[in-house]
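User: I'm curious whether this sequence folds into something compact or stays loose and floppy. Could you predict its structure so I can see for myself?
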Amino acid sequence: MFHILYAFVWLITWLPLGVLYVFSDFIYYLVYYLIRYRRIVVRQNLENSFPLKSKQELRKLERQFYHFFCDVFIETIYEMHMSHDEMRKRMNFVNADLILEQYAKGKSCLLMTAHYANWEWACALSMWLPKDKPLYGIYKQLSNPNFDGLMCQLRMTYNGENIEKDLLLRKMVELRKQDQLAMFGMISDQSPPGHSIHYWTKFLNQETAPLSGTELLARKFDYPVFYSEIKRVKRGYYNCEFIPISMEPKLSSENEITETYMRLLEKSILEAPQYWLWTHKRWKHNRS
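Assistant: Here's the prediction. I'll summarize afterward.
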């Protein structure tokens, strides 16, 4: 079944992205009205995050999210045949020179991002980096090996590399011993396992346990940390700006890096909430 689906996707992604958006519009109606994919989760997340919004406002936001959700799916599979030149036009890195300066100083960097806007296209940053100092995208292995392999293949389209999260520390140690520099892309908005909760913060009007792994690594290796703020300019076009979180992590106070990231992410979401991935169960734990 997977190989049939792969062949179909491989074939249709030769079409221009503008044509594929027609498919996205059609998929939206299937996913939202017929399949009703995770609508209970999305609705609960939105209601808890925006208690002052009216029911009409929340339903409009819900529909906007699902429409964008389908666009991201189409944009992701479109990477199969998208040229480097087209990606450069569609994914603009506003101030990549800011992180490249760290290479000149002999430092690797941690780039904290989220499931916001098109986070998959952020892997295109590798096209702006030296080939011997690539972007490593940190990911959690999918249970289905076929789909896991497909996603890894798409993420390496633009010269980047993948590291499964459980192998990250070992890889960072190896690179440091070899005096090799790299960028590490960390999607840091998931819910941590219960045994890994270190502190709580207020996020989108809810008590939230953030992931703190990036901060722990930053303080251990003293690598500068940036927030990769991705914004949707229009359909199929994005900007990514790198905002410094901590340039000297070892001098930061406990939880300072994680808290700064959470505030920056919250700001992004409040500006355009329809572009965050509301289908995940972000609030699995309660403080009690």
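Summary: The chain has two domains: 2-78, 88-274. Residues 88-274 form one domain.
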